[in-house]
Amino acid sequence: MMRGKYRSAVYVFSEAQSTVAKDELVRLQLEFDAQIVTKIMNFASFKNSDERFINYYSNDSRPFCTTYIDPKLKLLREQFAQNVRGGTGHQ
Asked: If you placed Cys at 18, which of 12, 50, 63, 77 could pair as Cys (CB 3.0 to 4.6 Å)?
């Protein structure tokens, strides 16, 4: 299962940000049947990605992106088109 391999996280710099993020995840959970697995984590340091992963999505069409990322982007663009430049959901 990809949910265990590729985890999502919100990195925060303060307790106030952590509280806001936690509250938002609780609110969003009401809209999903599956449990949201995004973690709230304190930011510790930044490390550049390995060169082969920089611009991974735009530089190379990978099966992972086609299978998992593209459908999520399509859904986001449809549901939040009004928040995307041009209002069409396409950039």
From this structure: 12
